[in-house]
Design goal:
The strands form two sheets. The chain has a seven-stranded parallel sheet, sandwiched between helices. It has a five-stranded parallel sheet with strand order 2-1-3-4-5. It is 38% helix and 15% strand. The protein has two domains: 116 residues, NAD(P)-binding Rossmann-like Domain (Rossmann fold), CATH 3.40.50; 184 residues, Rossmann fold (3-Layer(aba) Sandwich). It is globular, with a radius of gyration of 21 Å. The protein starts with a strand and ends in an 11-residue tail after the last helix. The protein binds glyoxylic acid (GLV). Glyoxylic acid binds next to loops.
Amino acid sequence: MKILVTYDMFREGFAELESKYEVTFPEGRDFTYEEVFEMIPEYDVLCSMFDFPVNKELIDHAPKLRLIANYAVGYNNIDVAYALEKGLTVANTPDPVTAPTANIALGLMLDTARRITECDRKLRTLGKDMKVGVLENLGMPVTGQTLGIIGMGRIGKALAKRANALGMEVIYHNRRQLYIEDETKLNVTYVSKEELLAKADFVSLNAPYTPDTYHIIGEEEFKQMKPSAILINTARGPLVDEHALVKALREGTIHGAGLDVFEFGDYPLPELLEMDNVVLTPHIGTQTMETRIIMARTVCNNVIGFLEGDRPVSRVLRP
Ligand code: GLV
């Protein structure tokens, strides 16, 4: 049984898998698509990173492949419909990413609302020329405000708990409404997307990236939001029309944004870098050493569970 890992990772997380099977890793860098394409015909299992494209061409070039074990909860990098049609199993890593991603969403909310990074940057760059004083650098209160969560899966729920602890009201929109017991436990209220956009002081995107969620927030949606609203995106960049976001921020259609992901790859549109009311982080939602290792262990559990049937596999059941 041969296993190909496309990315460089702390090996500690892969110890059990390496003790049982032949595992190929890149050293000190990730494999390129071309390298993986060349090697894949020999492999039974592919462990892919969330930005590695597992497309039809690659799947068709992999006669032995049985499992694609993604290192992420998101699987928009994989042509899941085609993989399933070809009889492959696709697995992901939902549990370990939940708390870290919710923490980054909360961090971006607080930072954008209370202007933490902006003040830090101004103190460093302007020094004593920075305007300070009790009426300067006013922010948003957060406590007592309304958070609207779009996508009430594991991460949305974890963020709702954190927001409740801060004394926020939480409304949400989701493909399906939660059971009443869950709504009561989480202290959240289901609303339409329109109502959420109209009422929320913060709109947080916590939905997967699918054809249905592409540009779920664009020009029309910005117009429905409050001029004081702050948009938070820790999901996937293309959920937001980033050009429309630049326009909405410039024209004051909304107040601010906290973004961990960007529409056009690893970096934001340059206009966003110029805006003080925007906080930007480079997809660090799960970026702690502990989470990296637990995610790797979860990938290994998925692979071993699939091959040996001795533990549960987190299967992706539909695109
Ligand atoms: C990270 O972005 C993930 O999907 O787990």
